[in-house]
C-alpha cells in the first residue's frame, strides 16, 4: 500500500499530492483539479478534517460570510480584483476574454454543452459527462450560448 509522501492521479485528471498512509490520504495534502482549482486539507484516513478550496482564478472559498455572487454583489471575481470595464464593454464571464463557444453550444462553466447530443466536453473537447434532464434545462435556461449573450431567460413553470 502507498505510504509516505507521494502523488496520485485519479482517472478524472485530478491529482493528489501529499501524505499517504495505508493507501489513503492521511496528513497534509492537496487535490489539484484539471480546471486549475485546488483543495488543500488535513486528511484523516481518506477524509478531510479541515481544508481550504481555492478556485483557479485565486478566489478562496469562505464557508462563513461568503459574499461572492450572493445576489447583492453580482461582480465576477476579476471585476472585484481589477475593476469594471468602461461603459459599453460587457464582461460576460470571469475570463477576459471569454472562451469562444462552438456553434450551437453553451458555455456551462466547466466546458461546452451540445444540446443536440446532450454531451458536455471540457475546454479541450474531452468528454466530461452526459447531461440529465435537469442539467439540460438549467444550462439552456441560464448559460451563455454561442453567438454572444446568454440563453433566453425563461421563467421556470
UniProtKB/TrEMBL annotation:
Protein name: MORN repeat-containing protein 5
Gene designation per UniProt: Morn5
Compartments it resides in: Cell projection, Cilium, Flagellum
Any one annotated GO CC term: motile cilium
Domain of life the protein comes from: Eukaryota
Ligase among keywords: no
Organism this protein belongs to: Cephalopterus ornatus (Amazonian umbrellabird)
One Pfam family in the UniProt entry: MORN
Keywords (A to Z) from UniProt: Cell projection, Cilium, Flagellum, Repeat
Chief location: other
InterPro entries: MORN (IPR003409), Morn5 (IPR042814)
Amino acid at each position: 500500500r502507498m505510504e509516505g509522501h507521494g502523488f496520485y492521479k485519479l482517472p478524472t485528471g485530478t491529482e493528489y499530492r501529499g501524505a499517504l498512509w495505508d493507501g489513503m490520504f492521511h496528513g497534509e495534502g492537496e487535490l489539484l483539479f484539471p480546471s486549475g482549482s485546488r483543495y488543500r486539507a488535513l486528511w484523516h484516513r481518506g477524509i478531510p478534517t479541515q481544508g481550504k478550496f481555492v478556485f483557479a482564478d485565486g478566489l478562496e472559498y469562505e464557508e462563513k460570510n461568503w459574499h461572492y455572487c450572493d445576489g447583492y454583489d453580482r461582480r465576477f471575481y476579476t471585476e472585484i480584483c481589477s475593476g469594471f470595464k468602461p461603459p459599453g464593454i460587457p464582461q460576460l464571464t470571469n475570463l477576459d476574454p471569454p472562451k469562444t463557444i462552438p456553434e450551437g453550444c453553451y458555455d456551462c462553466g466547466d466546458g461546452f454543452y451540445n444540446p443536440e447530443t446532450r454531451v458536455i466536453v471540457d475546454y479541450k473537447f474531452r468528454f466530461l459527462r452526459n447531461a440529465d434532464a435537469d442539467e439540460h434545462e438549467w444550462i439552456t435556461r441560464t448559460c451563455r450560448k454561442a453567438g454572444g449573450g446568454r440563453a433566453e431567460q425563461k421563467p421556470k413553470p
